[in-house]
Structure formats: structure tokens, C-alpha cells
TrEMBL record:
<dbReference type="InterPro" id="IPR006015">
    <property type="entry name" value="Universal_stress_UspA"/>
</dbReference>
<dbReference type="Pfam" id="PF00582">
    <property type="entry name" value="Usp"/>
</dbReference>
<dbReference type="InterPro" id="IPR014729">
    <property type="entry name" value="Rossmann-like_a/b/a_fold"/>
</dbReference>
<comment type="similarity">
    <text>Belongs to the universal stress protein A family.</text>
</comment>
<protein>
    <submittedName>
        <fullName>Universal stress protein</fullName>
    </submittedName>
</protein>
<dbReference type="InterPro" id="IPR006016">
    <property type="entry name" value="UspA"/>
</dbReference>
<feature type="domain" description="UspA">
    <location>
        <begin position="134"/>
        <end position="261"/>
    </location>
</feature>
<feature type="domain" description="UspA">
    <location>
        <begin position="11"/>
        <end position="126"/>
    </location>
</feature>
Length: 277
């Protein structure tokens, strides 16, 4: 058995479609694989000629190797439907990663299906890969986001950063506003207390914000290294959750966003902090 507590089960899988966004996702995934000691698996669902597919995969592998030499990289060009391919890959992957503005079958409905029914977290990478900032997790409905919260703490330990847990509060101001705010803040801290004890070295900030949930995460995404949400939008962040038809895969976020299924939260063990690959 591998004794390295950072190592994750299964490879990090990246969807390759030839777009600049997908190549940014390859970069992010390669760095993540270096952090965790995972393998990197590049997957292309065949929609073009075999020659074109081979060229796309070579370009993606080149980006991965320039990002971090020495990675264990495998490539697969698959002809089966995208949804079938992604669900199958998710059963053995540590993460599945996409570029947010890619094209073809590796985004859109197939990726949304994966985030709701897949067996591992889905990470959507936009146009930047921040190297600093906290891991921000949306925590409104604990049933939907308990696994997301654990994933956030695991990633913070990996990156050597803190966790900012955000609960959005859209209720109008009333004479009881301060009392309600205090109660919700205490509830948020209580829900995270077990994780805070387990990851005792991770600084935790509890934030209760009045405002529209999607806008709150957009604001915090400007300063975050990663945003983490649950899969169904019940966490109070339907504007960025993958299950929302209006989510547009985190449109407007400045950092990658991870959507964590309720039953899946793979990651390194507590205390496995690193600050770089």
C-alpha cells in the first residue's frame, strides 16, 4: 500500500477537445497531479478524424509535461458517447477536469450529468490558475455540501492555505436581523467544527453574507484559489452549481470551481499540507 498520505486513488482525468480552455484545464490538472502524486489521464471523445484527435492529444500531453516533468501520463481516445465515457471514467478517477469554455461533447449536458451522477468531483477551469488565496466553500444546506466542505479542507491542506466557508443570506433586514445572523453564524461554525478539529492546522473563516448567493461567490472568487460547491444548487449557490441550467459552468468566476457529489470526497489525508509541487 502506498504510504504517501497525499496520494489519491485513481488518476486525474482531463477532457481534451483542442480548445485553449481545455489546455488551461490540462495545466491545472497537471499541477494537481504533481501535488497529490496522482497519474494524469487525458481523454478525448472522438468527434473528428483519428489524425486530428492524435494531434490534439499530443498538444495536451506537451502542455502537461511543460507544466510538470515526470508525471505519469496516459491518453485515451474513446468513441463511445460522452456521457457514457465520463460516467465510466468517474468510477475510478480522483477528479475529472474540464475547461469552462471548451467545445464538443465534453462540456454541456454530458458534464452536467457527470456532476450530478458521477463518482468523483468535477473541476471546471476558467482562464486563470491562481496560486494564492483561500479555498472558498459554499455552505448553505449541509446535506448537499458536507462532502464539498471536506473536499475544501483537503484542498486547503494540500495547498497550505485556509478555508473560507460562506453562507449567503438573502432575507430582508428585520428587527431580528442581528439575532438571526448570530444564530446562522453559530450554526455554520458548528457544522464545520468536526472538520476544523480534524484539520486543526487549517485557518478557517466563517462568513455570513446578505445578498444573492451566486453574486457572493463571484465576489469571493476574485480572491480565491478554488471555489467548492455541492452538486444540486441546494447549497444556496444555484448560479454556479453545475446542476443549474443558468450556472454556465461558473461563468464570471476568476478561479476554478469544484462541484463535489454528495457521496464523493476523495483527497489527501488530514495534515498533508504542501505549498507547491
Amino acid at each position: 500500500m502506498d504510504s504517501d498520505p497525499r496520494r489519491q486513488p485513481g488518476p486525474i482525468v482531463v477532457g481534451v477537445d483542442g480548445s485553449p480552455s481545455a489546455l488551461m484545464a490540462v495545466r491545472w490538472a497537471a499541477r494537481e497531479a504533481a501535488f497529490t502524486g496522482s497519474g494524469l489521464r487525458l481523454v478525448h471523445v472522438l468527434t473528428t478524424s483519428a489524425g486530428r484527435a492524435e494531434s490534439l492529444m499530443r498538444a495536451a500531453e506537451s502542455v502537461a509535461r511543460r507544466t510538470h516533468q515526470g508525471l505519469a501520463i496516459e491518453s485515451a481516445t474513446i468513441g463511445s458517447p460522452a456521457r457514457t465515457t465520463l460516467l465510466r471514467e468517474s468510477r475510478t478517477a480522483a477528479l475529472i477536469v474540464f475547461g469552462a469554455s471548451g467545445h464538443g461533447p465534453l462540456l454541456g449536458p454530458a458534464a452536467i450529468t457527470l456532476s450530478l451522477r458521477g463518482g468523483c468531483p468535477v473541476v471546471v477551469v476558467r482562464d486563470a490558475i491562481p496560486e494564492t488565496g483561500p479555498v472558498v466553500v459554499g455552505v448553505n444546506d449541509w446535506a448537499d455540501c458536507a462532502a464539498a466542505a471536506r473536499f475544501a479542507f483537503q484542498r486547503a491542506a494540500l495547498y497550505g492555505t485556509g478555508v473560507t466557508a460562506v453562507r449567503a443570506w438573502a432575507a430582508p433586514a428585520t428587527p431580528d436581523t442581528m439575532a438571526i445572523r448570530s444564530k446562522e453564524h453559530a450554526a455554520l461554525a458548528a457544522e464545520l467544527s468536526t472538520l476544523a478539529d480534524e484539520f486543526a492546522d487549517i485557518p478557517v473563516k466563517h462568513v455570513l453574507v446578505r445578498g444573492r448567493a451566486g453574486g457572493v461567490l463571484l465576489d469571493y472568487g476574485e480572491r480565491a484559489r478554488l471555489i467548492v460547491v455541492g452538486p444540486h444548487g441546494r447549497a444556496g449557490f444555484p448560479g454556479v452549481a453545475a446542476g443549474s441550467a443558468t450556472g454556465q459552468w461558473g461563468s464570471g468566476l476568476a478561479c476554478p470551481i469544484a462541484i463535489v457529489p454528495t457521496e464523493a470526497s476523495p483527497g489527501p489525508a488530514a495534515g498533508a499540507a504542501r505549498t507547491g509541487p
